[in-house]
Design goal:
The structure is a homotetramer of 139-residue chains. By secondary structure, chain A is an alpha+beta fold. In chain A, the strands form 2 sheets. In chain A, strands 1-4-5-6-3 form a 5-stranded antiparallel beta sheet. Chain A has a 3-stranded antiparallel beta sheet with strand order 2-7-8. Chain A has helices spanning 23-39, 44-51, 124-131; strands at residues 2-8, 53-54, 57-64, 73-83, 87-96, 99-109, 111-112, 118-119. The longest helix of chain A is centred in the N-terminal third of the chain and has 17 residues, at 23-39. In chain A, 24% of the residues lie in helices and 38% in strands. The first copy, chain A, is globular. Chain A has a single domain (2-138), classed as Hotdog Thioesterase (Thiol Ester Dehydrase, Chain A), CATH 3.10.129. Chains A and D meet through helix 1 and strand 3 of A and helix 1 and strand 3 of D.
């Protein structure tokens, strides 16, 4: 499944060069992943409260192609690119209109926090949701 | 006691106006309070681990007089201005060299997190440390 | 005029106490003010590009009543409380459902950045927009 | 040259999992790069004021091995790994004591902001400073 996460660049996201301070792209990738998990039916806040499951980061990467400015409207398109037994890789493309601004990915582990944090096999139903094609939605 | 907390303005602290984004002053007041607690012998990380005590914020205020820029060297002078039974007010003055840049305060409650968070009387020895005059230190 | 700004608490807004790190409330007040200016017809990004006008902060205050947690839905109600010649005071109430979480205010100066930053009288039409009652909107 | 940048984890750097929110590692890599440039004689603030030169990011990557907690003391070891004509790659290793916490890199372009931003050949003397071995310093 692909999920779209839309946001607006805030004043506090900019720096003295007049454009977005780059670590904010990782903040937005993190937000986009939480939105993705909500969209497939597993909001992170519930997942943690009910099952003590979280998805800590193993690696994150971003390539920057165009700068973003204050009050730009941005869409992040997120898709799970790879699923291993306990680890998944989610890619994020940043778009302003049609223009690709940046693209990145995160590698995260499906992890139980019941005792000491310990990676767990990703449940079959989560895996199925991540891999399902997007349904065509009439608007 | 007065404590001095010195820091440097980072690139990420600035905004597109070329100066510091104002919420960062509150981040620095928070840091200055943690430094203050360390300086009187109660580092927050220990206080929480050993006694489940923290100091959540009740109110914070700041008045802004001069802007700060990238790589400015700044000193925050912190002093506990008022101590009530369970609540204290700590004031922070921001200086660049001799110049006063901003001044603010925080009101915080001495709080146990053992069960539900609950404000506690500030212990006598903490109170004494907060009120002690600065020792003259020969350098 | 009153403006409502709705947002969701993000993972990165929380701290190790499991609740929102308090300086983020000031980030949200800043965002709410920019949304307010957009709502009355003066988006900050345009105001600056077309007229080199911005509204730097003189003072900000917040009182904290209830903590906020990850993925809470929050509304900020913003209203200009006072308008002087060059300075206005905007108050912000944070609500989760009906519950008041925090309330604060910002004092800002209407400022030209054409040469050296210099406060300007707030234009009559801006003043009128800030003071107009909310129109009743049938939904 | 290798440069060491030492810092302490702040309360605001943590999240509700009790550890550092991962985008902060990129904030620290950015800080470490500015410290590196200062250490070889080109503080970013001067470089920009005097020559309108900055080093915008093209790509950043980080691999996370161990979490960091509040008030941890951390060292970032930064070294320029690769220098091309207009672009350099700087790697950053995060250490707590002897333990490797994370390692990452940034790819940045030496860029003139005189007119439109435009990448420039990295000057010979900068290149020489980046490549020089660390001098043995008697302490």
């Amino acid at each position: 499944m692909t999920n779209n996460y839309d946001f607006k660049v805030r004043w506090g996201d900019t720096d003295a060069a007049g454009i977005v301070f780059y670590p904010n792209f990782y903040k937005w990738m993190d937000e986009a992943t939480h939105e993705y998990l909500s969209a497939i039916g597993y909001p992170s806040s519930k997942l943690f409260q009910e099952q003590q499951i979280g998805c800590p980061i193993l690696e994150a990467n971003c390539q920057f192609k165009q700068p973003l400015s204050f009050e730009d409207s941005v869409r992040v398109q997120s898709i799970v690119q790879e699923i291993q037994n306990k680890v998944f890789k989610i890619s994020h493309v940043f778009l302003r209109g049609e223009k690709e601004i940046a693209k990145g990915y995160e590698v995260r582990a499906w992890t139980s926090f019941k005792d000491k944090p310990k990676a767990q096999p990703i449940p079959e139903e989560v895996r199925a949701k991540m891999l399902q094609p997007n349904q065509h939605v009439e608007v």
